[in-house]
């Protein structure tokens, strides 16, 4: 099963799909008009050069307000060009108004529209027809076709149109094991998890879930995977896993059931496993509010990656497939980036120096051959050195001295050291003395409120007035939104919220308890001793991505496989210490403490349960080894665990999960975490979307 | 066992055989009756009825001709085995026997002529002999016999297959293509009296005068010519390459070179029907199937055959008694060919005994083959086919493997469905393991069930259908929607709705419900699917169908907690506004206004409205908090206005802090105090603000004065930092001494940072810190010898 999860192939198949469609549409030269919000994604799939080489596309235009004017000009100059629109309305559900305008003004007929959809959306029908063709008959009945969202909106237009679906799969942009679906933000850049218009929340959530579920399904079908164990934490996550199950079962044929039955049935169990863990942002609202300390995280905080993992200000391409240096550095603590860069530079130098030693013609040739890649490497190294020195400047200079202050404050808040009466002073100090950005101040206040599980009445009032006084009355509504989402609450308001009918999952405990139970703020000296004993491994505890804090999400995931933390810190009554399968048994108590509802966590098995437990257990206890045919070495086979984040993932969490993967494999649980998220978040994005 | 080859006849190198299908059981006592044959059934006209029998003589259905009110000129079966009744003005396609559903294709009114003859989709007019083709139940003129190019004397003078029509004119032979209607003179100046065309396009002409047969595909190359001894009763193709003529009680098959074989029958031959692989012979008592013997079969059963198949059968028959010999035989021929031959021969046999024997032999031979050298699927498929064919025969469908292949399983099912043989269909589907077909059968069954039982209650019908559905247990190919449509046409709306709800294909279900005008139900079902894009497209469809208020009602009732449509309409603020107003959701309404205000950059003007909306809500802490803030804001605006009037500066859109800063900047201390009092501004905040404003305005004196006026509640560190961060390091130095609780080292650093070396030196001197002084000394720029001297002096003093 593992070998099918070659995620790089997903990018290729996406790109190929587009090229095939474009080639199919016409042989004339084409102008591709792309919806602006989709451009970064398109760019990271294939470059303009690749596009022009493999398709008749000659020009790319943006589907914005200027378009219709531009078009009439271009079209009159070059009459032979075909116009093709590329839109993505998976989250927006609404055609871009510019498309309609353009169609009206330029009198395009027929209108060629390529739209994105998750692969396999309509697999059911096509599969059937193939099946029937094989049998030599077709039940010649007209499948009723209900117009899809795009068609039903296009019918208002008079002109003719042809729609081409483009099947997409989530594809890796940051790392091989991180797939983003880009469904967190819609066309207007509204966060679907925290929408701007509060009242639309349930709608946007359902759209978000629909997208995630479809993308997961597309992945599962593409790779022919069978999910065995599922754990979902959070109400929305539960909804998501139920819907996914429903949709997968819907398309299951007898054959699939048979395969499942034989692989996991009563008698036999092949021991193959694939986990699906679904988490949502509300489980851990704290992490995105913290300052990220990994290289990628800091870059995201300071410059913000767009959906193509590019930074606007710096014209740099963070392509992990080509840029090895980026690949090595991205998940390191920024503190280790410098030494690492130094090391890399030295290595590069050594490689360059090789030429002096080269004596035979053969050696010289070898060197010359590698020259291209060395030079490329040098360019990347230079880029990253410049970039990290820029970052360092920002972080260290007195002008922005706030960076360290904020870090300090965050840690203090998390450790529960802040005294109540200090709050306002601290905020004032930050605001005026350190001249910290509004968003950051707000972020810290939210962090405080969450960690304290709502503020005291007076503090709440004071902070509120203070913020409105300094930043204007609009903030009143932002604060209201934050309150609704549980980011900034007072004691009574919080109680109000809890009564609400459809309450989303929310932290219900003060952070000091959480940190105690889950050991999220590991004690410094323990950390130090670990470090001493373990020279090579950077950090024993996963505190490197944030200032001394282990993200809650990581602890939750860890809890499913490894209970040692809980054993030491929460209760010594644990059903297991290590488990290959993700298990939630005896966590309900903890979960109820955290979220006020023990049903928030749910475990299920999607394959027939093996009856013969004993045999099963014996298989499981043996570490399975697969023999690699090529060189005969044995290596522990890794299970795939899909970790789904609803509402976005932070760069730091990605790094931490990588770390967890390494830790677990050291303990003999070899997993490959594939992170599937709807988008990236960090503190700024969260604050921006709630306004 | 009797060797089946005993009654074979040999024509050149091909054997032919004649096998009994069954007894003739339908009424044949009438002297003169018309009948039509199809592959599986026979239609007989008896008095006023057309009765349809299968080959077992079971009556499948009758059609009362009186109900048709027209004289039936002719009837025959089309290729889907639907009965076609030809009257003078129309042809009627019988789609269903009971209840009788007839589709009539009448001649166009403009044609003042009647139908002369019809066969296989081709129709000739009585007077003009124009040729028409039936195309999707419409007449299509194929060839117009304008100038009487040809004349056909009897109905035997023309024939057609799917590709061509042969017309026997008095003088010439013409060919018309059914594809485009081009007329071609095939043979000039030759006259014939009967024509039959084989399915492969061989043409057989018969001349009554010379009693002569001629067979060709291409007139330039006559394949065969025969002079007959007597006039044949009928001429028909046996298979697609041999011509058979019937003479009273015998049938002759003609081969090349004047060869022929004769089959004698104990009874008079009444009728013939050409099948693709043989000939059905209907005598007055029995029905026979005359066909060529497959080469595999003949190689096995031919007397004295030493072909692999025959050897294998031999070996198998010896197995029980003389095993060593049997094994010995196995070594002497190509075993694989033997196995394959036996399999093919088994499929071709009708007799279960023979089938079994041949399959046993094949299985025995297969087991002796090398591992994996033989694809066992061939054997399994053959077994399945034989099982199916035997099953068909038990249901009265007499099909050979070839015929089955040509009509496919679906064809068989369709034929059975025509006569409501659902049970048999289900059996066949189960046997063939075709679940998708099972769904089809179910769909057809349910449709008929609804149509046939007009008296049953909706609930009863639904229960019946549901219970059957449970028995079947497949949903994939069942089209509930089509059943629902039938129910709808029958006027059963409730049933139609309930059936539509059972549909598995979501889109179809929604569409059907929408068609039924059951908007609310459609919407509910759609929401259940949790597919937002489908829901939105349904809502768009609904929005076109319904008035705005109807839609709003629907949304509030069925989608109360699901604002999907509003999400879709999010750009249309006016719509959102209306919707929220109608549904009394004031807070949401306020938020829409807020967004609008933000977009138009004039939040100011929207706020009073928002406040009003907020104040309609009671018992919410959050709202009352917001109202408080809004009131405070209003107060601020009023105050700002009064200030604005007083100072002639506009304060609009300024926050409280900005207003304060402005006042501090302009030195209006009195107003500052007033604001602080009025709005209860925190003293610390005031200090920060004032401090910053003064620094920014470069009013350093005032700042110093301010700092000394009263002990600062925020300490003096901010003073220092403000000054320093804005580059006024000279001015920052004095504040260092004011900062309380600083260690010496820190103070020294602060002095150093703002390059106030003198202070630093003094400080260090006080602390008697020689290394510190040295450090300071090193940092002093070279153009300040005075300071260096001072440092030295301090150092020497210690």
What does this structure look like?
Chain A: This is Vps33p. Chain A: Belongs to the STXBP/unc-18/SEC1 family. The complex is a heterodimer of chains A (691) and B (798). Chain A is built from 28 helices and 16 strands. In chain A, strands 6-7-16-15-9-8-12 form a seven-stranded mixed β-sheet, with helices on both faces. In chain A, strands 2-1-3-4-5 form a five-stranded parallel β-sheet. In chain A, helix 18 runs antiparallel to helix 19 and helix 23 runs parallel beside helix 27. The longest helix of chain A is centred in the middle third of the chain and has 36 residues, at 361-396. The two termini of chain A are 44 Å apart. Residues 122-142, 525-537 and 614-634 of chain A have low confidence and may be disordered. In chain B, 48% of the residues lie in helices and 20% in strands. In chain B, the strands form seven sheets. Chain B has a five-stranded antiparallel β-sheet, with no helix packed on it. Chain B starts with 8 loop residues before the first strand and ends with a helix. Chain B has 798 residues and is of the alpha+beta class. The interface between A and B is large, with 67 and 76 residues.
């Amino acid at each position: 099963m593992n070998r099918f999860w070659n995620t790089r192939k997903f990018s290729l198949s996406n790109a190929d799909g587009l090229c095939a469609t474009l080639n199919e549409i016409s042989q004339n030269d084409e102008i591709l008009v792309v919806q602006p919000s989709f451009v970064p994604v398109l760019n990271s799939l294939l470059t303009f050069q690749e596009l022009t080489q493999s398709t008749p596309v000659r020009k790319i235009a943006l589907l914005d307000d200027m378009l219709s004017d531009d078009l009439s000009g271009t079209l009159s100059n070059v009459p032979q060009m075909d116009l093709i629109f590329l839109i993505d309305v998976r989250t927006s559900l609404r055609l871009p108004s510019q498309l309609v305008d353009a169609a009206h003004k330029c009198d395009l007929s027929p209108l060629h529209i390529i739209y994105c959809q998750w692969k396999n959306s309509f697999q059911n029908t096509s599969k059937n027809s193939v099946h029937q063709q094989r049998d030599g008959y077709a039940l010649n009945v007209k499948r009723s076709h209900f117009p899809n969202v795009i068609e039903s909106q296009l019918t208002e237009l008079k002109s003719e149109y042809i729609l081409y679906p483009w099947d997409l799969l989530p594809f890796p942009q940051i790392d091989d094991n991180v797939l983003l679906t880009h469904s967190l933000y819609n066309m207007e850049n509204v966060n679907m998890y925290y929408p701007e218009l509060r009242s639309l929340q349930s709608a946007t959530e359902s759209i978000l879930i629909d997208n995630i579920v479809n993308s997961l399904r597309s992945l599962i079908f593409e790779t022919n995977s069978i999910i065995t164990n599922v754990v979902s934490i959070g109400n929305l996550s539960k909804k998501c896993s139920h819907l996914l199950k429903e949709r997968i079962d819907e398309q299951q044929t007898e054959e699939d059931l048979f395969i499942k039955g034989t692989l996991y049935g009563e008698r036999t169990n092949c021991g193959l496993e694939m986990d699906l863990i679904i988490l949502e942002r509300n489980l851990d609202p704290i992490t995105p509010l913290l300052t990220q300390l990994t290289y990628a995280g800091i870059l995201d905080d300071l410059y913000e990656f767009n959906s193509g993992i590019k930074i606007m200000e710096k014209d740099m391409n963070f392509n992990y497939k080509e840029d090895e240096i980026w690949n090595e550095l991205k998940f390191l603590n920024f503190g280790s980036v410098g030494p690492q860069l130094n090391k890399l530079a030295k290595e590069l130098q050594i490689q360059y120096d090789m030429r002096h030693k080269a004596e035979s013609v053969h050696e010289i040739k070898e060197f010359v051959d590698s020259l291209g890649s060395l030079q490329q490497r040098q360019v990347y190294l230079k880029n990253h050195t410049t970039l990290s020195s820029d970052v360092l400047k920002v972080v260290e200079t007195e002008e922005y001295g706030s960076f360290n202050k904020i870090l300090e404050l965050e840690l203090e808040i998390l450790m529960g050291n802040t005294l109540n009466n200090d709050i306002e002073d601290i905020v004032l100090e930050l605001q005026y003395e350190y001249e910290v950005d509004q968003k950051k101040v707000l972020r810290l206040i939210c962090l405080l409120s969450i960690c304290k599980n709502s503020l005291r009445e007076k503090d709440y009032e004071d902070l509120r007035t203070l913020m409105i006084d300094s930043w204007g009355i609009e903030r009143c509504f932002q604060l209201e939104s934050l309150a609704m989402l549980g980011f900034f609450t007072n004691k009574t308001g919080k109680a109000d919220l809890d009564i609400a009918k459809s309450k989303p999952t929310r932290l219900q405990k003060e952070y000091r308890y959480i940190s105690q139970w889950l050991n999220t703020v590991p004690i410094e000296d323990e950390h130090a001793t670990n470090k001493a004993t373990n020279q090579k491994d950077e950090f024993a505890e996963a505190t490197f991505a944030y200032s001394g804090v282990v993200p809650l999400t990581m602890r939750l995931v860890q809890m499913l496989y490894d209970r040692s933390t809980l054993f030491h810190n929460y209760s010594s009554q644990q059903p297991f210490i290590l488990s290959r399968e993700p298990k939630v048994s005896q966590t309900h108590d903890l979960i109820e403490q955290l979220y006020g509802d023990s049903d928030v966590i749910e475990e299920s098995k999607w394959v027939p349960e093996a009856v013969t437990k004993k045999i099963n257990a014996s298989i499981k206890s043996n570490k399975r080894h697969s023999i690699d045919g090529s060189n005969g070495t044995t290596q522990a086979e890794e299970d795939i665990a899909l970790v789904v984040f609803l509402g976005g993932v932070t760069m730091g969490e990605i790094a931490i999960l990588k770390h967890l993967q390494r830790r677990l494999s050291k303990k003999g649980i070899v997993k490959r975490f594939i992170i599937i998220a709807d988008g990236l978040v960090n503190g700024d994005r969260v604050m921006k979307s709630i306004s | 066992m009797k060797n089946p080859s005993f009654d074979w006849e040999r024509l050149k190198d091909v054997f032919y055989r004649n096998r009994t299908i069954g007894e003739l059981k339908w009424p044949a006592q009438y002297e003169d009756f018309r009948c039509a044959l199809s592959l599986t059934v026979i239609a007989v006209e008896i008095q006023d009825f057309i009765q349809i029998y299968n080959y077992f003589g079971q009556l499948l259905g009758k059609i009362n001709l009186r109900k048709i009110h027209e004289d039936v000129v002719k009837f025959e079966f089309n290729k889907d085995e639907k009965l076609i009744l030809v009257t003078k003005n129309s042809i009627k396609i019988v789609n269903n026997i009971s209840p009788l559903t007839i589709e009539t294709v009448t001649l166009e009114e403009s044609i003042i002529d009647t139908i002369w003859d019809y066969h296989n989709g081709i129709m000739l007019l009585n007077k003009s002999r124009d040729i028409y083709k039936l195309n999707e139940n419409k007449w299509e003129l194929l060839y117009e016999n304008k100038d009487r190019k040809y004349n056909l004397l009897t109905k035997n003078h023309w024939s057609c297959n799917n590709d061509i029509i042969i017309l026997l004119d008095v003088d010439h032979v013409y060919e018309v293509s059914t594809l485009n209607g081009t007329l071609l003179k095939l043979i000039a100046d030759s006259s014939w009296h009967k024509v039959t065309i084989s399915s492969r396009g061989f043409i057989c002409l018969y001349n009554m005068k010379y009693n002569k047969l001629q067979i060709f595909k291409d007139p330039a190359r006559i394949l065969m010519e025969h002079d007959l001894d007597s006039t044949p009763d009928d001429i028909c193709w046996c298979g697609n390459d041999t011509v058979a003529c019937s003479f009273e009680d015998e049938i002759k098959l003609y081969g090349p070179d004047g060869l022929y074989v004769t089959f004698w029958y104990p009874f008079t031959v009444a009728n013939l029907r050409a099948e693709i692989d043989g000939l059905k012979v209907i005598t007055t008592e029995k029905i026979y199937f005359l066909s060529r013997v497959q080469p595999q079969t003949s190689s096995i059963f031919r007397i004295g055959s030493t072909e692999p198949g025959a050897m294998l059968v031999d070996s198998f028959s010896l197995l029980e008694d003389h095993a060593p010999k049997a094994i010995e035989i196995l070594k002497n021929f190509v075993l694989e060919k033997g196995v394959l031959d036996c399999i093919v021969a088994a499929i071709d046999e009708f007799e279960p005994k023979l089938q079994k024997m041949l399959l046993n032999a094949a299985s025995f031979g297969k087991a002796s083959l090398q591992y994996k050298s033989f694809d066992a699927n061939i054997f399994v498929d053959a077994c399945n086919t034989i099982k199916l064919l035997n099953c068909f025969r038990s249901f009265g469908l007499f099909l050979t493997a070839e015929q089955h292949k040509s009509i496919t399983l679906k064809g068989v099912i369709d034929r059975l469905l025509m006569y409501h043989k659902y049970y048999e269909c289900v059996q066949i589907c189960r046997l063939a393991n075709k679940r998708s077909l099972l769904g089809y059968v179910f769909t057809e069954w349910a449709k008929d069930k609804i149509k046939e039982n007009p008296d049953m209650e909706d609930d009863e019908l639904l229960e019946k259908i549901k219970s059957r559905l449970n028995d079947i247990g497949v949903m994939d190919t069942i089209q509930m929607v089509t059943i629902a449509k039938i129910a709808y046409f029958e006027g059963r709306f409730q049933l139609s709705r309930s059936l539509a709800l059972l549909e598995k294909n979501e889109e179809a279900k929604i569409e059907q419900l929408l068609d039924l005008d059951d908007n609310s139900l459609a919407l509910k079902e759609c929401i259940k699917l949790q597919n937002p894009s489908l829901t939105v497209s349904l809502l768009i469809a609904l929005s076109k169908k319904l008035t705005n208020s109807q839609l709003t009602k629907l949304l509030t009732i069925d989608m109360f907690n699901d604002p999907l449509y509003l999400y879709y309409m999010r750009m249309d603020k006016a719509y959102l506004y209306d919707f929220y107003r109608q549904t009394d959701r004031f807070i949401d309404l306020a938020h829409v206004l807020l967004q609008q205000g933000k977009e138009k950059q004039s939040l100011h003007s929207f706020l009073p409205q928002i406040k009003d909306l907020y104040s309609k809500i009671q018992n919410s802490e959050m709202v009352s908090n917001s109202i408080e803030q809004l009131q405070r804001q209003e107060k601020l605006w009023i105050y700002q206005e009064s200030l604005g009037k007083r100072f002639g500066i506009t304060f609009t859109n300024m926050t409280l802090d900005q207003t304060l800063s402005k006042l501090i900047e302009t030195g209006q201390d009195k107003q500052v105090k007033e604001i602080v009092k009025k709005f209860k501004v925190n003293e610390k905040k005031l200090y920060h603000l004032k401090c910053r404003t003064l620094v920014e305005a470069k009013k350093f004196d005032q700042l110093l004065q301010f700092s000394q006026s009263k002990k600062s509640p925020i300490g003096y560190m901010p003073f220092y930092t403000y000054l320093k961060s804005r580059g006024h390091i000279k001015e920052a130095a004095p504040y260092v001494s004011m900062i309380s609780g600083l260690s010496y080292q820190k103070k020294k650093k602060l002095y150093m940072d703002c390059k106030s070396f003198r202070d630093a030196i003094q400080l260090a001197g006080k602390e008697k810190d020689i290394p510190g002084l040295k450090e300071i000394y090193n940092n002093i720029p070279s153009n300040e010898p005075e300071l260096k001297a001072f440092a030295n002096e301090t150092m020497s003093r210690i």
